[in-house]
Amino acid sequence: MALLALAHFMYQMVGATIFQMLEKEAEDHNHFQLEKLHFLANCTCLDGLHMERFVQVIRDSSKVGLSLKGNQTMDSFWKFTSSAVFAATVVTTIGYGNMSPSTTAGQIFCVFFALFGIPLNMVVLNRVGKYMLAIERNACDFIQGKTNHRKLTRFMIHLLSYLSGTALFFVMPMVVFKQQEGWSYSQAIYYCFISLSTIGFGDYVADSNPDKYYPEWYSILMASWIFFGLAWLALVINHTGEILERLNTHLKHWWSPEEPSNAGPVDEVKEPPVDG
């Protein structure tokens, strides 16, 4: 346990160091401070207080689907398809943050909806994951019955399962998001993983740009992709956890091997005869 906890701590520290090295270069406070001063110098009608108010209006407008490039808005920011995607992000705990209930009734309903929806979603995803595993095992058993290479067959089936899942839940959505959202491939693959792992930063959110027209099938495809992709990625993460558990067991045996006992066999203790 101590070795595993140390590995977990070191992994987070290494990650924090790498994130700092990669992102701190892009964090140029002086540049943005100069941009702010330049903006205020050119827009003399705005002072610091009014600019903060203007920024707040922009944030609030984007949350209700108002385009910042014009006066057009989305058909309805809370239309049924968008609401269905929002409901999926609630029960899956993704929580992008681009949409949130603003009314008191909506906020209270969201609490109870999540309270019962999250465990229900976990049960359903668990069942879907078991069906996926059952299909994979049946394929393994069928092919193993035709061949004599048990380990090779299992390896190939697992590899095929991972590759097909990657193509279905990452590669194909990546192409769709590039076409519909205008993202780069790296941004799209980043969004896929952040969504399906339920991290949900909210820096990239599909089907939420008021300047774009989305077909009706897009939201339905999004909800289906989230549901089945979560089940598949949960299986991959669980399998990765099993590999780490086995690795931890091997490391424990390697660091503290059992010492062979030098003691000889223990003689049986015979009861003394009872005098008559």
TrEMBL record:
Membrane-spanning residues:
77-96, 108-125, 155-176, 217-237
One GO cellular component term noted in the UniProt record for this chain? plasma membrane
User: Which InterPro entries does the record match to this protein?
Assistant: 2pore_dom_K_chnl, 2pore_dom_K_chnl_TASK, K_chnl_dom
Domain of life assignment: Eukaryota
Query: What keywords sit in the KW lines?
Result: Ion channel, Ion transport, Membrane, Potassium, Potassium channel, Potassium transport, Signal, Transmembrane, Transmembrane helix, Transport
Q: For this UniProt entry, which residues form the secretion signal?
A: 1-16
- Show where the Potassium channel domain sits: 75-132, 159-245
Q: Offer one example of a GO biological process linked to this entry.
A: stabilization of membrane potential
Localization in the cell: Membrane
Q: Which GO terms describe its molecular function?
A: outward rectifier potassium channel activity; potassium ion leak channel activity
Chief location of this protein within or outside the cell: membrane
The annotated topology with respect to the bilayer is: Multi-pass membrane protein
Similarity annotation: Belongs to the two pore domain potassium channel (TC 1.A.1.8) family.
Please report the name of this protein according to its UniProt entry: Potassium channel subfamily K member 16
Source organism (scientific name)? Salvelinus namaycush
